[in-house]
Amino acid sequence: MAGRLALVTGGNGDIGTAVCAALASAGYRVVTTCVDPEAEGIAEWQAQMRQQGHEVAYVVCNVADHDACVRMAEEVEREHGAVDVLVNLAGITRDTFLHKMKSEDWQAVLDVNLDSVFNVTRQFINGMRERGFGRVVNVASVNGQTGQFGQANYSASKAGMHGFTMALAKEGARKGITANTVSPGYVETSMTGKIAEEVRQQIVAQIPAGRMARPDEIARVIAFLAADESAFINGANIPVNGAQFCSF
User: Fold this and answer.
1) What pLDDT does 122 receive?
2) What is the spatial distance between Cα 193 and Cα 116, in angstroms, rounded to a whole number?
């Protein structure tokens, strides 16, 4: 429905930018979170979005910090209104083999990727229940489904996100709330663009589609799940991986 408010955590990255654009194009009012507006170039990012016809607001919040999320929610609701659509997208990696992994690298990834899903969703779930409408989309990863060398922390965090999704779907279904996971495969981003060409070719060779996804292809699925008309899709994990991983 046009005019609904969507909050996208970490929305100024490559995938997040596409998500914010897709939601704005669909008529949503969009707010994103960031940690350091100056370091992340939020003003320049907003200007670029504006040139494309998308007005996206931001709020400063470290989503790994529960108290910061409480304050963030208060600011968002005060300045923009009630959140109807929540996209939990913020995430980090700290890759290394488990036998070399430091406890702080494990904890940092769990804090940002998984704890944040609770920290943020918890702030808005009561309002969604009261209004009888809500869309929660958690962005996980194919590596949460398959595991990956050097990513015990990341794979665990992304698998945990879908466990959260399934529980929330059951709790919210009678209140008009859906919770779904989107699990992208490898995506053309600035991060994957830095991968050595030889390694990149090895990755692409494992993808039956013969290429990585575009950010807008991930965003399209998220916008679809956010729609009012997607009310009966609940508790699903939607793969967007070019047939890299297929399962029932």
Assistant:
1) 98
2) 26
